[in-house]
Q: What sequence folds into this?
């Protein structure tokens, strides 16, 4: 309707509430127009549920199932809480209106014409938007594909996606809702979703509806469906190069078909043509005797009636069919938007020219449907006229005489594709202006955004010349429709109702009648044939839509961020596979942590089949969700396409394989993965911004899921291995069953040889060798099946069956028990050399025995003999036990053959061995220690045979590391990316120790467990040295502050053991990047060490006890426990939870054997750490703290503290008799004093136990088993400090009072440099204090407030002269003159050097010029010589040519003379011959 008509209707139909709504809509439009300017935030759409939709409240009242619909409790209309939709930039929204505001005097309905619809004629103003073109064309394509379906179930109607006031059932018709609330069912992210929309419609400034509408003006389903589709399309992120849509398709959203998108390239046109011929129907002439050929994979519904017209003919009526086609093929053209100086301008011009030839336009990009292919002329060639029968007898061959050979003309093969499009010959305005004939009739305001300057010029020039006839007709018809629509007024409503036969009821809540209109208008797709080469120029992408329901096996995996899910969805969200079928696997979905920057996932695929497998992989992603419209522009560049990478994977190797499949998309994309026969394991690594969905469909069974689901499938043999083993077993079973039949036995032997003999073996020698291996495998298989050794009769029967007597000689188990007892030679023959006669006799006996055996086998091979019957009876009794478990015995047979192949690939099934795994899990509980290092696991595994192993750790703690140590050599196995690399473990005596360490986080989940999985190829795997793994450890910890020193030592710790102890040593520093080395010294010799940054571990070390001291230490209990406690050692037990089947004890047999060789039996272990490369720097505050610690150390180094000295001096004065105490008594007193812990030591221990984390500190841990905690002691190495203290104490013991005397001498020296105190102060102090106290003197001397006299350092000054000399002005002038002379000398030298360098540069340039001149002269001389030589050659050649010409002339003259002479003599010769002939005739 026009703008003036709408203005006339508004006053008549407005009400009080309507005016309020219009004001509210105007304010909303003014504050935030929907042209990418306002916010659009909404929760994730829930999965479709019929029961929930049945309970939906369609009016303004709220229920439990209905969410908050409006801010007001009495809202007249439903306002979608998700916000209003975002339209493209070309469609500027001016206002939003409800249907009652722009459709007046007419009954409103959702569906008015259920037979057909037309979305082109009334939406001419929307064609400038690519989104609207794609939406209209794809709805028409889906309608056309389902148009001819016979059953009601297969029919598709677009309005059936909308639900309002109707039942949830197939074939429903939604009714108009006055409240404006509608539910739309669309496919998105792997399942059908429930999307809520309201009936507010956008309009521009000219009152044009900005959503598609049908020709029935009161019909609302196109607008409602378009709103929901645009909502889904707004989640797509596209770049400016690919326009508004990118790879997003509405067909996928409407039907759930999976789009496989592939580019169309001219280089691979042959492959594209072959694919189209196999997929869509092929055009044939109706006159042919054979019916129209169709693809075997496509339903015959896709076939169309042949059309000989290449114009805009309607789509032919489809034949009768059961359903829609299984595969739909479409093609699309992306609007090219090249930048300046882009190479795409040429491609754009070529594409535009080709499209115009077929009635399409580059400015009107959309999706077209491919209906048929044609490889023959459009019109059948005329039949040749009939030939009479008599002309067919002895036909003459037509011979064409030509002077040159005739080449058959090369004709281009007929390769055409039929395309169907609603926009065929549709008039499109160019970017520079409108077509002149349509300028007065069009009211489109916006220009098309996809035309570049080059395209616009071309389009405008052709438009000025005039449109094509077909286009002009289509334009005229479209214009008339538009004109008729514009002239509709409120008075013409009655006339419009008369043209439509179906009468609407007065109330909109009743079911509309489905009466067919008198003149239905079908949405027709126009058809045209396009050449294959032009097809590649016009279209860039091929879209193949697969129906997932036709695949018997399919599964889905989804992963979303918690931020995009609603609060209820995060708690109860459990999506499942959208398609369920017998034998299919259900899909799973998980929720990602919101703190993650993006959603990442790893899934695994296992395919095991005997035939080539094709798997359709669909990858749907979510990049934008609930972002503001203005932010969406910025996110276009920030959001990179999501990626799915598939590559071959094996748990037995850490080597990354090349990707076999890569999918990059911004919405949804699918690819067909083709795999050869065999077992394949692929890992899928996915990455998306907010979430993703992976959907796999295949006709072959497969397994897709996490690591646990896939690895359990890989423990079995592959399908090819099982099939090959069963084929060999069936051949052997056939040979056994035909053993008594001579005729069938030969054929059975040949079939068995074909089954087990590899195709690569072709020489007789190789076949003979392989046959022996097979015979040995069959013999071993029979022994395993019976579970015992074969008797002599059974062995003979096997030899007869296999015809291989070598089995008796090679197998050591074939000897009888009687011979085994007598096989030992007599003792008198031990050192005796046999005589020659005895050797000859033995050879004779062996030959006789061999001949007897050969004759016996030969007789047994003849039918009817006794030996034959006996062997046949033995096999009849023995073979049922083999058949009881045929698959197991067949696998054993083939495995033995492969094991004896010595690495050669005999059968194709050996390639599947790369994926076969065997694994065993070992788990322990984690201790809940916040932010602390802990030892998780330490066990010894015994390896009995050579095997390749890969340990894999599953830990809830991210900072977990596993070490593997060879106990025989003490070496740690190599690591790759902090993981133990795959290694071939060799059998050893002491086994391999697996040590796991971890740094726990702040909080661990309840019942958290650490798990290690040992992965190998075949059983048996290594076994634990104990029954179950235990994790009960005792931790001895020592920590202190770091004090730098000259030797760069951090600490030295003394370790004493009373028994052999296995320990793990760990050291860490407060600075994470400090490079440190941890060493274990035995008698100051390095026995173990490791280097790290901030953290270093020696995984396992065996502390050996001293054998000489074991007896004495057993008699004397631990007497140094107090000293250990005083030194700051924290010995604590760290018991951790055991496994479910753990026992109370643990076997230490392997630990007792783990004793590395040592040179001496007296051990003194010191754990030492040092800083490397001066990597531990301290700041000012830490340095100040270090100085304080050093003062404390100096104080601890004193044997007698100042107070002790004062006490001792006072005691000496008061008790002089103590000086005469014997030395022995003084020694005992010293021992007593030594045993008492001082207060300073106690304070030091408290300092070490409670460390300040801001200061530089370190921690040393030694972890042992709980049972060995009492056998090890750890303390600081204070040996040097004890030695100094012992020396000082010895001095004091030898000379009592020496410390006091030294202190008095120091104080006397310091008093010399102090100011003498005043008389009054001295008198008062003397009166108050009495006798002088040394402690007060010491405190006064060391007090900072004491005033000291400046010392005279003159005696310590270094002098150049004996007497000092005063520097006068003359001496200053002399020194100044000397400095100036030195400066001038330096300048002169510098100038000389610069001059010399300049002269050298000039000489170099002159030399270069001279060389160039010399080169030019040489070139000129060379050119002159060449010219002289060429002139000489030319003169010689000319002379030779002249001589040759003379000779030829002479020769020619000679030949001419001879020829003339012959011509003269020839008439005479002919006359003579005639005479002779006549004479001969007369004689006769």
A:
């Amino acid at each position: 309707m026009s703008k003036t008509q709408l203005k006339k209707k508004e006053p008549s139909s407005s009400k009080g509430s309507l005016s309020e709504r219009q004001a509210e809509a105007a304010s909303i439009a003014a504050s935030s127009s929907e042209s990418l300017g306002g916010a659009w935030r909404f929760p994730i759409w829930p999965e479709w549920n019929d029961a929930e939709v049945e309970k939906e409240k369609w009016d303004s009242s709220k229920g439990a199932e209905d969410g908050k619909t409006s801010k007001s409790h009495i809202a007249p209309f439903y306002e979608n809480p998700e916000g209003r939709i975002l339209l493209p930039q070309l469609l500027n929204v001016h206002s939003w209106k409800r249907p009652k505001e722009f459709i007046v005097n007419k009954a409103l309905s959702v569906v008015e014409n259920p037979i057909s619809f037309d979305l082109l004629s009334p939406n001419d103003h929307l064609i400038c938007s690519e989104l609207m073109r794609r939406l209209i064309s794809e709805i028409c394509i889906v309608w056309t594909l389902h148009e001819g379906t016979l059953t009601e179930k297969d029919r598709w109607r677009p309005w059936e996606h909308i639900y309002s006031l109707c039942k949830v059932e197939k074939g429903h018709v939604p009714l108009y809702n006055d409240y404006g609330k509608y539910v739309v069912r669309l496919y998105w992210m792997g399942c059908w979703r429930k999307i809520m929309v309201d009936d507010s419609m956008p309009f521009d400034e000219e009152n044009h509806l900005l959503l598609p509408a049908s020709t029935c003006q009161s019909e609302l389903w196109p607008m409602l469906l378009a709103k929901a589709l645009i909502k889904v399309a707004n989640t797509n992120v596209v770049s400016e190069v690919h326009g508004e849509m990118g790879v997003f398709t509405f067909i996928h959203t409407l039907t759930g078909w999976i789009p496989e998108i592939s580019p169309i390239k001219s280089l691979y046109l042959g492959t594209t043509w072959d694919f189209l011929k196999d997929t869509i129907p092929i055009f044939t002439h109706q006159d042919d005797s054979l019916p129209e050929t169709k693809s075997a994979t496509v339903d015959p519904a896709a076939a169309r009636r042949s059309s000989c017209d290449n114009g805009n003919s309607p789509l032919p009526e489809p034949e009768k069919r059961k359903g829609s086609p299984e595969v739909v093929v479409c093609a699309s053209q992306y609007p090219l938007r090249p930048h300046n100086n882009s190479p795409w301008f040429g491609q754009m011009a070529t594409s535009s020219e080709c499209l115009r030839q077929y009635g399409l336009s580059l400015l009107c990009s959309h999706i077209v449907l491919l209906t048929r292919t044609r490889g023959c002329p459009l019109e059948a060639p005329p039949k040749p006229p009939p030939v009479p029968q008599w002309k067919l007898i002895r036909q003459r061959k037509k011979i064409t005489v030509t002077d040159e050979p005739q080449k058959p003309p090369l004709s281009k093969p007929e390769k055409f594709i039929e395309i169907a499009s609603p926009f065929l010959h549709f008039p499109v305005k160019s970017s520079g202006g409108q077509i002149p004939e349509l300028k007065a009739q069009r009211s489109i305001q916006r220009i098309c955004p996809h035309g570049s300057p080059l395209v616009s010029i071309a389009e405008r020039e052709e438009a000025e010349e005039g449109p094509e006839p077909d286009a002009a007709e289509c334009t005229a018809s479209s214009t008339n429709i538009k004109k008729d629509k514009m002239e509709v007024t409120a008075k013409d409503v009655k006339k419009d109702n008369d043209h439509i036969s179906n009468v609407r009821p007065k109330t909109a809540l009743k079911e509309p009648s489905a009466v067919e209109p008198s003149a239905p208008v079908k949405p027709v797709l126009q058809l045209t044939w396009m050449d294959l080469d032009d097809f590649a120029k016009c279209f860039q992408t091929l879209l193949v839509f697969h129906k997932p329901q036709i695949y018997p096996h399919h599964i889905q995996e989804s992963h979303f961020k918690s931020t995009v899910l609603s609060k209820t969805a995060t708690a109860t969200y459990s999506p499942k596979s959208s398609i369920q079928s017998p034998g299919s696997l259900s899909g799973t979905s998980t929720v990602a942590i919101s703190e993650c920057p993006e959603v990442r996932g790893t899934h695994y695929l296992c395919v095991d089949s005997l035939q080539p497998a094709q798997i359709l992989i669909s990858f749907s992603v979510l990049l934008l969700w609930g972002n503001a419209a203005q932010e969406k522009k910025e996110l276009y560049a920030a959001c990179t396409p999501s990626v799915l990478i598939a590559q071959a994977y094996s748990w037995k190797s850490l080597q990354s394989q090349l990707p076999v499949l890569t999918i990059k998309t911004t919405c949804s994309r699918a690819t067909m993965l083709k795999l050869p026969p065999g077992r394949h394991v692929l890992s899928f690594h996915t990455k998306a911004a907010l979430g993703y969905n992976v959907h796999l469909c295949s006709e072959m069974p497969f397994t897709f899921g996490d690591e646990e689901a896939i690895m359990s499938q890989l423990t079995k043999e592959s399908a090819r291995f099982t099939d090959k083993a069963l084929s060999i077993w069936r051949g052997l079973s056939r040979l056994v069953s035909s053993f008594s039949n001579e005729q069938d036995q030969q054929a059975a032997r040949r079939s068995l040889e074909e089954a087990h003999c590899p195709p690569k073996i072709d020489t007789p020698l190789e076949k003979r060798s392989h046959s022996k291996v097979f015979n040995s495998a069959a013999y071993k298989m029979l022994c395993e099946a019976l579970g015992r050794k074969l008797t002599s009769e059974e062995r003979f029967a096997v030899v007869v069956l296999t015809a291989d007597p070598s089995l008796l000689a090679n197998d050591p188990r074939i000897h009888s028990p009687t011979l085994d007892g007598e096989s030992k030679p007599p003792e008198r023959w031990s050192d005796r050399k046999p005589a020659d006669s005895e050797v000859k006799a033995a050879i004779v006996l062996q030959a006789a025995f061999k001949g007897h055996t050969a004759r016996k086998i030969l007789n047994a091979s003849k039918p009817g003999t006794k030996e034959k019957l006996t062997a046949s009876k033995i096999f009849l009794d023995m073979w049922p036990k083999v058949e009881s478990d045929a698959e197991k015995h067949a696998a054993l047979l083939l495995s033995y053959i492969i094991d004896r192949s010595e690495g050669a690939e005999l059968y194709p099934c050996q390639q599947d061995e790369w994926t076969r795994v065997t694994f065993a899990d070992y788990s322990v509980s984690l201790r809940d220690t916040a932010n602390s290092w802990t030892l998780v696991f330490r066990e010894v595994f015994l390896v009995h045979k050579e095997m390749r192993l890969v340990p894999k750790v599953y830990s809830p703690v991210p900072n977990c590391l596993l070490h593997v140590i060879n106990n025989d050599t003490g070496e740690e196995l190599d690591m790759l990316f902090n993981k133990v690399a795959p290694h071939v473990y060799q059998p050893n005596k002491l086994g391999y120790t697996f040590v796991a360490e971890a740094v726990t986080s702040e909080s661990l989940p309840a019942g958290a467990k650490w798990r290690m999985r040992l992965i190998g190829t075949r059983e048996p795997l290594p076994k634990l040295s104990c029954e179950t793994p235990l994790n009960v450890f005792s931790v001895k910890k020592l920590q202190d502050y770091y004090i730098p020193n000259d030797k760069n030592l951090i600490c030295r710790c003394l370790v004493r053991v009373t028994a052999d102890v296995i320990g793990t040593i760990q050291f860490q520093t407060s600075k994470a990047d400090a490079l440190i080395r941890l060493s274990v010294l035995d008698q100051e010799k390095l026995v173990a060490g490791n280097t790290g940054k901030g953290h270093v571990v020696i995984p396992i070390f065996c502390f050996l006890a001293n054998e000489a001291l074991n007896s004495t230490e057993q008699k004397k209990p631990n007497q140094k426990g107090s000293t250990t406690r005083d030194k700051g050692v924290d010995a604590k037990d760290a018991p951790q939870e055991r496994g479910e089947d753990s026992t109370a004890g643990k076997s230490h047999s392997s630990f007792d054997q783990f004793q590395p060789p040592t040179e001496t039996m007296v051990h003194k272990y010191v754990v030492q750490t040092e800083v490397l490369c001066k990597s531990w720097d301290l700041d000012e505050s830490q340095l100040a703290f270090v100085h304080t610690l050093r003062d404390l150390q100096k104080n601890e180094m004193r044997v007698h503290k100042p107070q002790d000295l004062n006490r001792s001096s006072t005691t000496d004065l008061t008790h002089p008799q103590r000086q005469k105490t014997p030395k022995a008594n003084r020694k005992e007193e010293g021992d007593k004093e030594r045993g008492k812990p001082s207060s300073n030591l106690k304070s030091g221990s408290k300092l070490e136990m409670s460390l300040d984390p801001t200061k530089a500190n370190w921690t040393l841990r030694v972890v042992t088993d709980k049972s060995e905690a009492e056998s090890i002691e750890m303390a600081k190495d204070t040996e040097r400090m004890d030695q100094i203290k012992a020396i000082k104490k010895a001095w004091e013991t030898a000379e009592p009072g020496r410390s006091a005397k030294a202190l008095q001498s120091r104080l006397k020296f310091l008093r010399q440099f102090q100011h003498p105190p005043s008389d009054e102060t001295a008198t008062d102090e003397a009166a108050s204090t009495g006798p002088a106290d040394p402690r007060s003197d010491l405190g006064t001397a060391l007090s900072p407030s004491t005033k000291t006299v400046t010392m005279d350092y003159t005696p310590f000054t270094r002098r150049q002269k004996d007497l000092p000399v005063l520097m006068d002005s003359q001496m200053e002038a002399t020194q100044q003159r000397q400095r100036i002379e030195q400066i001038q000398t330096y300048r002169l030298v510098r100038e000389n050097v610069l001059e010399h360098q300049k002269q050298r540069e000039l000489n170099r340039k002159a030399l270069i010029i001279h060389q160039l001149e010399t080169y030019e002269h040489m070139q000129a001389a060379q050119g002159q010589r060449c010219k002289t030589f060429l002139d000489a050659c030319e003169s010689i050649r000319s002379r030779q040519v002249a001589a040759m010409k003379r000779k030829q002339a002479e020769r020619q003259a000679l030949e001419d003379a001879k020829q003339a002479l012959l011509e003269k003599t020839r008439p005479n010769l002919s006359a003579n011959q005639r005479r002779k002939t006549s004479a001969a005739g007369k004689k006769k």
Summary: The first strand starts at residue 95 and ends at 97. Residues 28 and 95 are 8 Å apart (CA to CA). The mean pLDDT is 74. The chain has 38 helices and 41 strands.
